[in-house]
């Protein structure tokens, strides 16, 4: 095979049973919309809790950015909540995803600042393998980041 020839596509996995075929078809139909919906609901919910100052992570978020003078103060957490609600609403409506998905990625990436700015809060005894509840709260954002990447990739392929 020369470098100008296309390689054959890998074989498509075949379902081994009717239930598996049905589940595969269902996942193909609703997987991406379900991912977008659940990500939207998560941002709407978490954002609303920040707006009303009912979030259990308000102090944690505030302390994470307290080293930035402009972000220090009581206004930041509710503002972040408004941003999250707007991003969640855009996801829910499927509008502006070309802009919204990179913004979500940047926002979620910013949550990892806590691992650097508050290691005493995110790790037990300074051991980076031993997370606290706050550390787990941050690390779970890897899943949300992956969801954003999947949605962005799917949007780009359309």
Class by alpha and beta content: mainly alpha
Largest sheet: 2 strands, antiparallel
Q: What is the mean predicted local confidence, pLDDT?
A: 91
Strands of the largest sheet, in order across it?
Answer: 1-2
Estimated radius of gyration? 20 Å
Q: Count of helical segments?
A: 8
Strand content: under 5%
Distance between the termini: 30 Å
Number of domains: 1
H-E string: HHHHHHEEHH
Membrane topology: Multi-pass membrane protein
Keywords: Membrane, Transmembrane, Transmembrane helix
Transmembrane segments: 34-53, 73-92, 99-117, 137-154
GO cellular component, one term: membrane
Care to describe what's here?
The chain is mostly helical and 158 residues long. The protein has one domain (31-157). Helix content is 68%, strand content 4%. It has helices spanning 18-51, 58-65, 76-93, 97-110, 113-117, 119-122, 133-139, 141-157; strands at residues 123-124, 127-131. A hairpin with a 2-residue loop joins β1 and β2. The mean pLDDT is 91. It comes from Actinophytocola xanthii. Its main location: membrane.
Set down the secondary structure blueprint.
Blueprint (H helix, E strand, L loop, with lengths): L17 H34 L6 H8 L10 H18 L3 H14 L2 H5 L1 H4 E2 L2 E5 L1 H7 L1 H17 L1
Antiparallel strand pairs: 1-2
Helix pairs in contact: 1-3, 1-8, 4-8
Short description:
This is DoxX family protein. The protein has 158 residues and is mainly α.
